[in-house]
Amino acid sequence: MLARLAAVRSRSPAESPFFIAALGVLMSFGPMGTDMYLPGMPAIGRDLHVPQDQVQWTLSAFFLGFGLGQLLWGALGDRFGRRLPVATGILLYAVGCVGCSLTTDITHLAAWRFVQAVGACAGPVLVRAMIRDVFQRDRAASVLSMMMLVMGAAPIIAPLIGGQILIWANWRWIFWAQAAFGLIALLALASLPETHPPARRGSLRPMVLLGSYRTLLTDRRYLGYAVGSSFIYAGMFAFISGSPFVYIDLFGVRPENYGFLFGLNIVGMIIINTINSRAVMRFGSDVMLRMGVWLSAASGILLVACVSGGWGGLWGLVGCLFLFMALTGFCFANSMAGALQSFPQIAGTASALAGMLQFSSGALSGWVVGVMADGTAMPMAAVIGGAALVSLALNLWLVRPVRRIQAAE
């Protein structure tokens, strides 16, 4: 077994048959950390005697920790390589899982969710850097889309697991199941080679880090990709935050069946990511991203109209959410590939900053949905539609058309 792992590490990462699959597992910390406990959110509120908005603190705390923690792991990944920081993050994630399972009040649950998220984000932020280490821009966008097909199983399986656990046990056992996923992730990490050689590693000196962030934050196109995609994330996390209460409390969906409705959206994302992985090699990532934000904005407007008019009841809502969530498959991979393209020496830092913006916007959108909660689906729909329109505006403003760039070059 050790000889096989050594042989895998000695090969080029692009040639390894386990490379994409293992990266997909490490990228799954986000959906596994959020989606598995979504069916249990109403039960958590009842058990801890708190209203919906306070239960959503735990989700916002996870998003905030997942976003801010990426700044730490991105810098460590550029200095010490990719594998060691990921392993450290997985161990911290496991500690957070245990803390969540043992807590007795909502404040400590939110705090342990923050710790859990800080550890969990090491995997996704450095996986994106690994892909930039190995692949160039359009190929990186294609690989990111293919990897999302691998990790696409997580958002389908996670809420189903959470719902089934609630049939046999209480919500605390969901966090023990999340800890078990950490062990699986460690095994996946063991099969991966180090993609960031010592000769390319940077420094942790504060002035060097500040210089890196200044470079990123003053780059127009980087901001267009990173900030623009963060608003699509805000729309997605508004759905994640609001849908358990809309589906279970408003429409009476049983908690064990919530995962099936949630999984429909992931099927749509898998389909669109499959299309994107092929189309991006022909049309380029900028073209596919521009099309994606236009369609996402249109689907957000349709969702608001559907909810305000009451069209189709539950299934009308499910259909509109399916459309919006599926179309994110044109946005995430292409925006991340564009953001990382120009910064190979600080790919970890660039990935971390983009991820921080995405998950911080997710934390904010989840909080807004909770504050606006009025017993209807409108707060969730309004945040999704508004976020999609802002993403479109930022893409049109900051990301110049592809043809103009090529002409300038």
From TrEMBL:
Mode of membrane association: Multi-pass membrane protein
Domain Major facilitator superfamily (MFS) profile residue range list: 17-403
Chief location of this protein within or outside the cell: membrane
SUPFAM superfamilies per record: MFS general substrate transporter
NCBIfam families associated with the record: efflux_Bcr_CflA, PRK11102.1
Keyword set, alphabetical order: Cell inner membrane, Cell membrane, Membrane, Transmembrane, Transmembrane helix, Transport
Family per similarity comment: Belongs to the major facilitator superfamily. Bcr/CmlA family.
PROSITE patterns tied to this protein: MFS
Database matches in InterPro entries: Efflux_drug-R_Bcr/CmlA, MFS, MFS_dom, MFS_trans_sf
Organism: Azospirillum picis
Gene3D superfamilies with a match to the protein in the record: Multidrug resistance protein D (1.20.1720.10)
Domain of life: Bacteria
Record has Electron transport as a keyword: no
Ranges that cross the membrane: 18-37, 57-77, 84-104, 110-131, 143-167, 173-192, 222-246, 258-275, 287-307, 313-334, 346-368, 380-399
Places the protein is found: Cell inner membrane; Cell membrane
Name of this protein: Bcr/CflA family efflux transporter
